[in-house]
Amino acid sequence: MIGRLALALALSLAAGPAAAECRLALLLGLDISSSVDAEEDALQRQGLAAALRAPEVAAAALAIPGSFVALAVFEWSGRWQQDLILDWTLLEGPADLTRAADRLAASTRSYADFPTAAGYALGHATTLMARAPDCLFRTLDMSGDGINNEGFPPALAYENFPFDEVTVNGLPIAGHDPSVVTFYEREMLHGPGAFMEVAQGFEDFERAMRRKLEREMGARTLGLAD
After folding, report:
1. Residues 123-146: pLDDT tens digits?
2. pTM for the full model?
3. Which domains are seen in the chain, by residue range?
């Protein structure tokens, strides 16, 4: 592991001063479509907050001194229902992770009655990525409990929006829709090294998010083989 981290830091330094300061821009998208009720939405927000407070996630985020992760979070549902929950925040120490977790834990959903427009959410994510810090790598992390049922599909988003340098990972939440895991695997994942972590219901969201953040923020995100 030490050898991998050393190589990752060397790659960051070789890419220039800006990239050395931020190694990863990580954007998280939370599903607030009508299939997600109030209790499930709370489990999602509190689960993400708890994951950010987990020591193993902090260890991954802060593993490379002087090379940080930038984090932002948005919620999504219908065609035009996307709202920023946490703007781009550089995670330079434990206090930054705690502040981000507190902000997410205190947040409330903006909408509750709209369908699942995954393609539109992906397109919106590119506008947020365009405002991200100048980082060496860019990852979009989409979670949800259903398949696309409004607007254009993910494939068209990938064809028509700037995803060339963005990896898209997934956190499908099993339970409501039996096809959600297959949908994420076949249509949402995008780019080199893309992967998904399945949550077995919203009660399992915290565990799944914690595992995924640890993997995304750690050395594997930098394209290094296990």
Report:
1. 999 999 999 999 999 999 999 999
2. 0.88
3. 2-13+23-222 (3.40.50.410)
